[in-house]
Give the backbone structure.
Amino acid sequence: MAPGSEAIEAVEALVRRGSPEGAHLADPTTCAGDDDDDNPRMSQKGSDILDACKWRDVPRLRALAESEGGFLNDGFRRAAWPILLGLPPLEAAATSPGDVGDWQDLPRHRDEDQVELDVNRSFVYYPNGQSEAQLEQCKSELSSLIVEVLRRHPYLCYFQGYHDICQVFMLVLEPPWRAKVVARLSILRIRDFMLPSLGPTTSQLRLLPDLLGKADPKLRQHVATIEPFYALAGTLTMYAHNIEAYHEIARLFDVFLAREPVFTIYVFAQIVMDRRDEILEIDEPDMLQVVLAKVPRNMDLDVLIANSVRLFDRYPPESLRPWKSISGASVLKTARDVGVCARQTLEDGHAYFQQQVKDIRWADMQDRIKMAVWRYRRPARAFGIAIAVAALAFYLRRSPTLVHYMMSFFSK
C-alpha cells in the first residue's frame, strides 16, 4: 500500500525546509545547524533518501546512511531520523499520548541542577556565526529539551555528556519533534547510560579489548594494561563530545541511528587500529591512556564507517567473550534490529529499564556474598562454602523478597 499523500507532502516539506534552497525561509533568530550540501539540486541519492522515507524503509535508510555522505543534509535528516527511531507519521506524532499535559507543570527532576551546569558549557564549536543573544536562545532551548524528557520520564538518570547528544538533535530537528525523538533515543537506544549504575556502561566497554584482540592481537597486547575507559567519552556521547565539526557529528549520527547501538564500540576499535603505528611507539602507560582517549580531527568518516562495518561483519558482537555477560535487557541486545526497535514502545523501554535495575542489584548482591565468603573463608571448609554459596544464590534468585535483607546483612 502506498503511503498517504499527506505523509508524502509532509516529508517533502521537511526536506525543503532543510535544503539550501529553502534556507532563506528560516527564522534567523532560531537555532539551526550548518547544512553540508551546497548543491541546490536534489541528487539521485537525495531522491533515494526521500523515497525511503516515504515508505519508511528502514533497511534502505541504513544502506543510505552507511554510504558516502550519509543523509547529505539536515533536511533529509529531519525526515529520516524520526523514522529510524520509530516515530509515527507526522500527523499521528502531533497527538502522541505520551505528551499529554505541559511538561513545565511536572515535578522537578533530581538532576536538573547538573543539566544547567552542562548546558552553560554547550555550543562551543557550533552553530557558527551566532550572536550572543542567539547562543543564549540555543542554550534555553537545549535546557528545555533535556528537562522535558527527564520530567516526562523521571526514572531516567542524567549523565554528563547527554547534553552533547541532545545539542545535535536540537540543531537538526524542528521544535515539535525534538522531545519525542530524544525520548525514544534515551529509552530505547542509550538506556544503558541512563541507569542508576555505571555497571552496564562498563560492560559495554569490556567488549572493546576483546574486539581488538581478535582484529589486531599485537595492538591488543600493547594496550593490555590500560582499562578500556579511554573509550568512555566517545561511546557514551555517540562521539558528540569528541567531534568538533557539526557536519561531521551529524554525519556520524546518521549511521549510529541506522545501526544497532553496539556499533559505536566498533567505530572506536577502528579508530584505535587506524592509529596503530602511533600507539605502538608509546610505552608509558599514562601517555598511552591519553593518546587512546583522543579522537583525531579531520578523519575521513566515510572510510571510517566502511571499515567499521567490515570489522563488525568479521567479528559480530556474539563472537566476543564479554557479550555473554551483557544483560538481556541491555540496549545492545534489545535494539540489535533497528526495525524491531523502531516498533518498541516507551513502555517496553521502561520495562527493560526496570529489568536492568534488577539485574544490577542481583549482580551487586552476588559480589557482596563473594566478598563475605572471602573475608571469612577457612581452607578446610572452602569446598563446603562454595557449595553453600551456590545453593544460597540459587535460592535467593527465586526469593527476591530476601534480596534487600541479605544485601544489608553483608554490608555491615
Residues 62 and 206 are 26 Å apart (CA to CA). The chain has a mean pLDDT of 85. The chain is about 60% helix and 0% strand.
